[in-house]
Amino acid sequence: MELSVLNIKGEDTGRKVTLSDAVFGLEPNAHAMYLDVKQYLANQRQGTHKSKERNEVAGSTKKIKKQKGTGGARAGSLKSPVFVGGGRVFGPKPRNYSFKLNKKLKSVARLSALSLLARDNKVALVESFTLDAPKTKEFKNILTNLQANGKTLMVLPEGNSNIVLSGRNLPKVKVATVNDLNTYDLLNTDKLVLVEESLNVFENLLSAK
């Protein structure tokens, strides 16, 4: 697959780059992407949810009425789950939701997501650029020139604080380095903007088996 290299004004520079089929030309593996996204979302959960059981609720344990002769069910304590303010039966407890996935499966998932974006023509290649200072308005104009108006993921070869800070306040924009890429972010974007210098690092890293 060939992509035209654009400048920050959105103009064609006249150069074309051929994307590796080993990264952008695979048949997407839907199940691998599902598992990787599931793990990513599970790892975001704090798992600190907790409700009180009957032994943790504050209250008297005095028997509230006699055992027999009332015509109703037996009741031993106001802390019973059947009463308002009582403990909860089988309530949530703190737990760890994370689970393990093999590195090879995660690699297949990322490559599948990239191939899916390339197949849908959602990948743009821009020549390397820098910002003298964090400037959100200038960064937004660059994205507009690149026709990246929806959810946008920009991939840098390495960390650049000025570019990261420029895009941080834009609600539908995420700036990441090659090493920070994950399947969830790739599938949750309308436009993948690759900075030209990141392409070699990008392909070498993700195509490694």
Question: How does this structure look, described?
Answer:
The chain is α/β, with parallel strands linked by helices. It has two domains: 153 residues, 3-Layer(aba) Sandwich (Ribosomal Protein L4, Chain: A), CATH 3.40.1370; 41 residues, no CATH class. 33% of the residues lie in helices and 15% in strands. The chain is built from seven helices and six strands. The chain has a six-stranded mixed β-sheet. Helix 5 links the parallel strand 4 and strand 5. Helix 2 packs across helix 3 and helix 4 crosses helix 5. The radius of gyration is 27 Å and the shape is elongated. The two termini are 21 Å apart. Pfam families: Ribosomal_L4. It comes from Pontibacter ruber. Belongs to the universal ribosomal protein uL4 family. This is Large ribosomal subunit protein uL4.
Task: Supply Rg.
Answer: 27 Å
What's the story with the biggest beta sheet?
A: 6 strands, mixed
Task: Give the beta-strand count.
Answer: 6
Helix/strand structural class = alpha/beta
Inertia-based shape: elongated
CATH architecture classification name of the largest domain: 3-Layer(aba) Sandwich
Spatial separation of the terminal alpha carbons: 21 Å
Strand order of the largest sheet: 2-1-3-6-4-5
Portion in helices: 25-40%
Beta content comes to 5-15%
Overall pLDDT level: 90
**Order of SSEs:** EEHHHEHEHEHEH
Would you identify the regions where 5 or more consecutive residues have pLDDT less than 50?
A: none
CATH homologous superfamily classification of the largest domain: Ribosomal protein L4/L1
How many alpha or pi helices? Answer: 7
According to CATH, the fold-level topology of the largest domain is: Ribosomal Protein L4, Chain: A
CATH class of the largest domain: Alpha Beta
Number of domains: 2
